[in-house]
Amino acid sequence: MSLFLACALTVLIEVPFLALFGFRSRYAVTVTVCANVITNLTLNLCLRFLLPPSLLSLACGEIAVVLAEFALYRIAFGKKRELFLLTLAANVLSCGLGMVVF
């Protein structure tokens, strides 16, 4: 799987998903795109070069991504009650669809 395609798919899924829940300002979209590009490329590079290829590695990596994105979103958007669940749901959606596509 291409790093570019995986990253593009993640951005194309997670940005509109969060926009559906009110994160649609230029600032919110920019933060969401940047957070997803950073975490997606980091995870995929780690999975490709550092971690053993397994579902456990993927699951641990995805947990780290959710926590990192949540931390970035909390800094950017403040304390919003639903933010963790939205971050988790967006990542479950993009990871699941990514597994189906690739």
Secondary structure blueprint with pairings:
Elements: H1 3-20, H2 26-49, H3 55-77, H4 83-101
Helix pairs in contact: 1-2, 1-4, 2-3, 3-4
Could you explain the architecture of this structure?
The chain is mostly helical. It is 82% helix and 0% strand. It is built from 4 helices and no strands. The longest helix has 24 residues, at 26-49.
Question: What string, H for helix and E for strand, traces the elements in order?
Answer: HHHH
The overall average pLDDT, rounded, is 94
User: What does the largest sheet look like?
Assistant: none
The general outline is: globular
Structural class: mainly alpha
Strand content: under 5%
- Please tell me how large the radius of gyration is: 13 Å
Number of helices: 4
Distance between the termini: 7 Å
Unreliably modeled segments:
none
Number of strands: 0
Helical amount: over 70%
